[in-house]
Amino acid sequence: MTRVKCTADSAATDLADQYQLSYQTLLIDASSIPSPSRLQPIESAALGRQRENSDMSAVERLQLSNIGLIEEPPADGNVTRFVQWPNNFPKGDTSIPASWDLANYVTRRWLCAVEAFVYGLVAKLPLIISQDQADLFGPIVINDADVGKLQSLVLDYVGTSSSFRGSKRSAGCRVTSFKSREILMSWCYFCLVHHNALHQFPLLGTYSVGLRFADLKNLVLDDMRDIATATHVASYLKVYSTAGECKTLFSTNWAATGQFADQVAQQSAYLQQVWQQEKNEANRRQQQHWEQVREKQRQCLQARANILARQQELRNTQETYWDQYYREYRTRSEWNNAKRLLAQAEQDLTYAQRPPAALYLPLPSDDAGGLRAVFFMHMPVPLRRLLEWTWRSYQIICDVTAVEPPNQSEEPSEHCVLYALYHDKNAPVHTSEDCATAFYFTSSKLPPPERDWHTWNNVERMTTSDDGVWRPRSFVPILMWDGEPYAQASAGLWPQKFDQASVERALVEDMGPGTDAMSQKVLRPAMFRRPKDTKLDERGNIGLALQSQRNCIRMKRQPFLAFFQLRSVPQLQYRKLCTNLRLQQLPLTEQSVHTLIYQTLSHVGKLRATTRELADSRKKEARVDLAWHDDLYYGDAWRTMYTELSSLAEQYRQLQRDHAAVLLLSSMTAFLAGHTRTDKGESEENEGKGQEEASQPQARQLDFSVLTARYSEIAYQWAESLDAQIIEEELKGKPDNVRQLRDKQHIFWLYALLALGLTGKFTETQAARYCKLVVRINATLPLLESKTSSLKELPLARAQAQSTAVHRIAQVLKLATGEDFTAAVQSCIPKQDQKQKLNWIRIGNSACFKAYTPVATASEQETERKDGQGQAQGNLIGLNLLTGVVLYNGVPPDRLPQTILDTDVYIRSFGARNCAVVPRNGYLTTVHQLSGRSYDFDYVVKSGRRELNIYEHIPRQCRGKGEPSGDVMRARLLNVSQESSLMQLKEMFPRLVEMHSHWLIEPWHAENAVLADNPDVAFLLFRSIQFDHRQTTFVATVKRQPATDNNFDAGQTLRIYRVPDERKSYAVEELARSCLANELDRLLDPEQATTDAMLNTIYKFEEKRFVEMYQIPPKTTASTSATFKLVLPRYRLTFELRPDGKLHSYDHQGYHLDTQQQFADTLHGFSRYLVLVASNPYAVSMIARPRQVVIVPSSPKVVRTKSGGVDVEIPICSQAKLSTTAYSVHQRFLTLEASDVEARLQLAALYAATSTALLEPRISRTGGEHAIQLLEGCWRNSPMSEAEQQRLENVASFCYGNAALALLCQHLDKDSRRLSALYPATYNTASADKASTRPALAADGADTAYIAKSAVLSSVRTRLSEVDEVVITGACFTT
Prior knowledge:
Layout: H1 15-23, H2 40-44, H3 46-52, H4 56-66, H5 79-84, H6 102-123, E1 128-129, H7 133-137, H8 144-165, H9 175-200, H10 224-239, H11 254-267, H12 269-323, H13 331-353, E2 359-360, H14 367-377, H15 381-401, H16 414-426, E3 438-439, E4 469-470, E5 480-481, H17 500-506, H18 516-523, H19 542-545, H20 550-553, H21 557-565, H22 573-583, H23 591-602, E6 607-613, E7 620-626, H24 630-633, H25 637-652, H26 659-673, H27 679-686, H28 691-695, H29 705-732, H30 735-754, H31 764-780, H32 794-815, H33 818-824, E8 841-842, E9 848-852, H34 858-863, E10 876-880, E11 886-888, E12 894-895, H35 898-901, H36 904-910, E13 916-920, E14 923-926, E15 935-942, E16 945-955, E17 968-973, H37 980-988, H38 990-994, E18 997-1001, E19 1017-1023, E20 1032-1039, E21 1055-1058, H39 1068-1076, E22 1081-1084, H40 1093-1101, E23 1108-1111, E24 1124-1128, E25 1133-1137, E26 1143-1145, E27 1151-1153, E28 1170-1174, E29 1188-1193, E30 1198-1200, E31 1206-1208, E32 1220-1225, E33 1232-1233, H41 1237-1249, H42 1263-1272, H43 1282-1292, H44 1299-1315, H45 1325-1333, H46 1342-1347, H47 1362-1373
Parallel strand pairs: 2-4
Antiparallel strand pairs: 1-7, 3-5, 6-7, 8-9, 9-10, 10-11, 12-13, 13-14, 14-15, 15-16, 16-17, 17-18, 18-19, 19-20, 20-21, 21-22, 22-23, 23-24, 24-25, 25-26, 27-28, 28-29, 29-32, 30-31, 32-33
Helix pairs in contact: 1-8, 6-9, 6-10, 6-32, 8-9, 9-10, 9-15, 11-14, 12-13, 12-14, 22-25, 25-26, 25-29, 26-29, 26-30, 29-30, 30-31, 30-32, 31-32, 31-33, 41-42, 41-43, 42-44, 42-47, 43-44, 44-47
């Protein structure tokens, strides 16, 4: 068949092109929306700089572009204004800095608004069955001008919804609900078109519509508003289907359509006039054709006369030719010329006998057929639109469900297409710009029958004007829409030929990957049937037959069987659902169960048509009920469902790990809450019913909105309880745990929002809860460490929460107050503004609001812009109630940019922790306090470098008379690598720089001064490196020079004071006063005391740069008061210089440093020790205490130095925490005595390392022999610890030349290993593992090979000398 593009009018709009242009503007490309990390205002704090420059207009413009301004639809019901409403939506260049995609909100909000608008129009359609047409039709709902505009709106809706559900942005959405609403929307528009045409053509009321309301049974609708509209549409179709199938318009029953066309044509003066014009035009064309025939006949007469003349001339020429044949040859040419002229005359006759082209008239000749043809060619616009949407309503079902339309019963032949070309050229079909055009073909045969051609092939045989003219004997139209190659026959695409099974399969929600076949078997109640003689659905045994597929949905046997039995008998599915909830047979956390229950609740199912008697006995109201919901509405299932859901709410309140079940139960409760009727509705419903019938729906008076609030509260409490856990995990430095907790918190906020439901009761309390939830949901998105959450329920929860937001926003705007908005944004604005009272102003007709914070402090008033009245405006806060976006000075709270996170000064104090910030007063200010305090971040250019400044807001705790009025002081965190003063300090006191963070409180403003009476003094706080460890260890004062700027390096020399332990938590003001009053120990420069012999004694024990010297403030006037302190912080040793000129120890009370710090008779070559002597050996406190104590650094390794001496291995880092070992000197023998095995082993290592061949005078033996004696006291009946084992190995490393010492070390090591099996509970497991992998001890050098000759310990005595044998024997058997 040749396809012909038929265009009725050049001004007609191409609907396909209009489709693309209208709805693609609503589908914003998510890639064009910048992510929060790419926003320049957040990274560079340019917004704050604009505020300092008093450019508030730029902030307002930025807020309008970032807030996602979406105008609310007009509420006056005007179609023209509603159609123009989407033009106010933000287009693709909108930069909304929110991870919750704005494009989703734009599209879904528009779809929801269109649904509400069209549903509202459909709800006005009357459902009265009456003999009086005035009561039947009711008032007009929509006029002619608005019907065409509404058509483009519906087509835009279908296209937008189809594109959205096919995109990646529809993740988590129930696709079947979108498909069902597209179908429902087209059927709604058909009802509106029919009602509009009904007012203009009341004759339609006597015919049935072409749509069957029973075909809506396949829809899956998850909103009570959709279900109510579907039943209303079905009721309307039922009202106008009472005429019966024999009088169905635009269906296979062509007789009814033809009869309707005849009746309309007979009543239409316009069609009568058109028919008369068509007849006159046909007669004119026929008369013109007859004149051509008559002209041909005259030409035939002339041709015949010419032939007779030529014949006579030929005869005369022939006679002359034969007479003069032998005399003159010129007569021969004349004869030939006469023959040629005769042949030409005969050809002229043949040409003249040919009839003119046959005349094909498009319309039948009789009035009945002609008027019917004129009706279809000049059909009124309302009827043409009704005809189009009768077909399109079912065509949309095929498009939505991807079902192939039925095959055509008849295709136009080639002659019909030729006729269409002729008809299009000469008689264009009437059309209008707001209505699609239908084109028609005739089904009559072309060309005319062959028996008529003998009168048409010669004009001389034509006797009447009807000869050579053809008229169709019948007119049966075949539809072709918009030139597309549908060309469906009238019996092609109608309800009788519709494939219901294919639509059922397409409207079944998928349960997950690999479960398509099972989804069809479980979720389609009408698929499996008995033989044709029965209509019962028996599917209860399918679960038994498919038990091998349990792994597909991860269920055990009993839940698997209950899973299949839920929808086996649809009329009892709600009762079975109550049973499963009671017995808890189904695993409510599984995705397949979520899909099953969703399909159970949302499937419309079988529709049952009924009527309801009205007060006027002459009228009835048509009603269509959901047959599968009878057990819910009129049985005990409703009350049972309420009871079970209430019980499960309390059960799952304590089961946070099964939060997926709360997602399902919240969705169920929200869906059922939309079915709840008010008391007024119940009383109206019960009017006119008997007592028994009226008592059945009383169970529906249970208010499910109470349960929705309860489930919302459960999820809300879960989310709030995670705040403390997140902070705790952040402090522990566990980012993986923090990410998981944030994912859970975000999905709990979603649960709390979706539990509010799409429809149903909505109170002011729920409106306030809604405001908090949308803000928290949007605020927690940037805090997610990864865009892909590990929670599989997140896409579904997010889609349902967005649906709740777009459905409830209109009610929220009516019920929420400014106090609710203020409470909602508390979690997204800095702490300084949370206590302020905000006056909210609505932006246009949108769901967006703005407010200015009051200016609190004088420093802020200097930088804030003043309005026309002279009042200073504070920071601008914006709120979008639809998306939850909160803007602070035009940008949303966002995490710190990567450029700040990668700086050394940030990593040093804050680690990997991130936080939400907003631009405020030129800085990035934290939204939430970090461990109780707020922080500011800012970049400054210093010496050509871009440096990061971090400020901490320190609250004032001491408020007295004359103190600064500010509530906080701002301390700046100094960068160790960029402050020259700190670099100089690091050379003298590395511990003060490397082990502390440095916070400088500069008096750059009067309010930032620590003390009002000393406004020029800056204070530098030395605290722990971690920002949240706020105990002050040191305080430094810096007095500014008059000509210097506010630069730390420009100050005078620091005066550093040490804060005692009992004052480290004091307020800054108290510490500052103590410093200025000289009440704290002041750190001195060690260079000033280098000549002191006592300090040189300390420096041989500890490095000079790790020794701190303090000046003690005079506490009393007593002459015994100390003046200086020497502190060895790595060893935690303190000495004080008293007036007697001696350094007394704080840690060993009653002792001071001896004047002789080096032993001449022992430990030759080792000098790292301090000798303490009792200050008053005869005091009572010194009873049983040694008179002399030797302090040695505790180290697991004794080493020999390059100079030949002996030393202990000490780390050189300033952060090292070292310990000491105190050896008492025996009062009589003067030997060093250790208090435990570990100290004794270290002393043995020192004697072994310093041992020589000469006897030491103090001990009267060599160092090696004394080491052996020390090892005698190291054996015990328990294994050695890890530290003791290391020291034993260190002793063994100095056994060269001393075989007895090596054997003794080996013996102690083996005994310790053997004893470890006897102490499994007390012995350190880690030490045991290390000991098991450590090689056995052996002596070094030649002794190793000497000892290795024998593996038997009992034979070691044979390898000792006589002296060694006595020593070893005594060592081995001496206890």
